[in-house]
Design brief:
The protein is mainly alpha-helical. It contains three helices and two strands.
Length: 75
């Protein structure tokens, strides 16, 4: 996959700084929640024509990378 910056932006003035698809207000978390609810790529793309398959893959890639650096301390 190309650089995530091509697809994901973080701007404190848009959605309170949540990572979003570039040039939209669609947050990475929105895409993750749609997929988790059972929506297919095709359904998401139909409902949000400004998105592409690459946007969905970038959101998944971004979330996977972030999860990879998250550490939970159990005490």
């Amino acid at each position: 996959m190309e650089s995530l910056e091509k697809y994901i932006s973080i701007n404190p003035d848009i959605r309170f700084g949540k990572p979003c698809i570039v040039n939209t207000r669609i947050a990475v978390i929105d895409i993750l929640e749609w997929l988790a609810s059972g929506m297919t790529y095709e359904e998401i793309l139909e409902d949000f024509p400004s998105l592409t398959r690459e946007h969905i893959l970038a959101a998944l890639n971004f979330a996977a990378k972030r999860e990879g650096i998250t550490k939970i301390s159990i005490q």
